[in-house]
TrEMBL record:
Biased composition annotated in UniProt, kind: Basic and acidic residues: 304-328
Active site per the UniProt annotation: 91 (nucleophile), 176 (proton donor)
All residue ranges annotated as the UCH catalytic domain in the record: 6-236
Listed name of the protein: Ubiquitin carboxyl-terminal hydrolase
Family recorded in the similarity comment: Belongs to the peptidase C12 family.
UniProt site positions, description: Transition state stabilizer: 85
Catalytic activity of the protein: Thiol-dependent hydrolysis of ester, thioester, amide, peptide and isopeptide bonds formed by the C-terminal Gly of ubiquitin (a 76-residue protein attached to proteins as an intracellular targeting signal)
Transmembrane segments: none
Location of region: Disordered: 303-328
Gene3D superfamilies: Peptidase C12, ubiquitin carboxyl-terminal hydrolase
Record EC number: 3.4.19.12
Domain of life, source organism: Eukaryota
Length: 328
């Protein structure tokens, strides 16, 4: 069922977040899955500017710090851009905005390698200067552009189920997005459901070391073996840099082989992401229904099924002849 707020749930997929930022006008940044916080994994993705953490949400009690080891601080006193989440289902977009609005723009002499907020978010930052976090949250939720981009990844459904028809159905678990990133030399946790940002330890060296300890500590508050988390990183878009290095005559030939592999990986990932986002934004069920309806009305449905079975049988026989037998 649709949420009355008019905002749809956000899928925890890096391609969704990358396209969301791109559609909002952000340049020079992309989002990737982060499967580990070890140095070997992080080194292949750097520079990393922020982390987006998805976890199973548990309603905090009066004495429960919800696994946080930091201290809530006033964002206006600490130079942190922070929006409260005031609309249901908007936590993914709010977390992404809380992250990128605190990432400093970086000009570059190389084409495509600058980090820019873009006009929409630049105006939002300027207009919200000096406002309380809740007011900025209402600015975000009332923006037609942000809401339209956020909802562009939701699929419409031809089915509508009455929840009263499933009285014993358990309530689905709620999941929540928050952001971690350095601001003015300090690691912050930006959770839109909290009144203020959470200040963690000052950063000494690589900020990701502090983030690793903080996130692992939070995960440690859940039962052992829990798989209720997902971690994304906001990083500099690598494609322009890789293409530049590959075309640079001064790049050693040995390094070019590695760069070429990385470039092909990023190009394939981008192409796959574009296709996946196209499928997300287009509901194909009506087309499928019409195809089945047309087959039925033309009397070709049975023939289509029999043809498919015959082709499947032929493929299985060819594999068997080659000794490549599938197990049932």
């Amino acid at each position: 069922m649709d949420d009355p707020s008019g905002w749809s749930l956000t899928e925890s997929d890096p391609q969704v977040f990358t396209q969301l930022l791109k559609d909002l006008g952000v340049k020079g940044l992309q989002v990737d899955d982060l499967y580990s916080l070890d140095e070997a994994t992080l080194s292949t993705l750097k520079p990393i500017h922020a982390l987006i953490f998805l976890f199973k949400y548990v309603e905090p009690s009066a004495n429960d710090a919800e696994g946080s080891s930091g201290v809530e601080v006033d964002p206006l006193d600490n130079g942190v851009w922070f929006a409260n989440q005031v609309i249901n289902n908007s936590c993914g977009t709010v977390a992404a905005l809380n992250a990128v609005m605190n990432i400093q723009p970086e000009p570059s002499q190389f084409d495509g390698e600058s980090i820019e907020l873009g006009e929409e978010l630049g105006n939002l930052r300027e207009f919200g200067t000096g406002m309380e976090s809740s007011d900025i949250g209402y600015l975000v939720s009332s923006s037609p552009t942000i809401r339209e981009v956020h909802n562009s990844f939701s699929k419409s459904s031809p089915f509508s189920m009455d929840p009263s028809a499933f009285p014993e159905r358990e309530k689905e678990d709620a999941y929540h997005f928050i952001a971690y990133l350095p601001v003015n030399g300090i690691l912050y946790e930006l959770d839109g459901l909290r009144k203020n940002p959470i200040m963690h330890a000052p950063i000494e060296g690589d900020w990701l070391e502090n983030a690793r300890e903080t996130i692992e500590g939070r995960i440690g508050t859940y039962p052992s073996g829990s798989l209720m988390f997902n971690l994304l990183c906001i990083r500099s878009t690598p494609l322009p840099r890789l293409q530049r290095l590959l075309n640079d005559p001064s790049t050693p030939a040995q390094e070019k082989y590695q760069i070429q592999d990385q470039l092909e990986h990023e190009l394939n990932k981008t192409k796959r992401g574009q296709m996946e986002n196209t499928l997300r934004r287009n509901n194909l069920l009506p087309v499928v229904f019409q195809l089945f309806k047309a087959l039925g009305e033309s009397g070709l449905a049975n023939k289509a099924v029999e043809d498919a079975r015959a082709k499947g049988k032929e493929r299985k026989e060819r594999r068997a002849a080659k000794g490549d037998i599938e197990e049932d």
